[in-house]
Design a protein that fits this description.
Low-confidence stretches: none
Mean pLDDT: 84
């Protein structure tokens, strides 16, 4: 017979949620930084024709 799983604690849920949000924040920051360097022409790792 199937038994329902135990409920995840609120603190554990918040830790996982914050980790997920922080990862998204750093990814967005990197993307913005790359866009800025491409726009100003100071990029050393990304080549594009102007």
């Amino acid at each position: 017979m199937a038994v329902p799983k135990k409920r995840t604690s609120i603190s554990k849920k918040l830790i996982r949620k914050n980790f997920w949000k922080k990862r998204g924040y750093w990814t967005a920051l990197k993307a913005f930084s790359l866009a800025q360097s491409i726009f100003t022409g100071n990029s050393k790792s990304f080549f594009c024709n102007k």
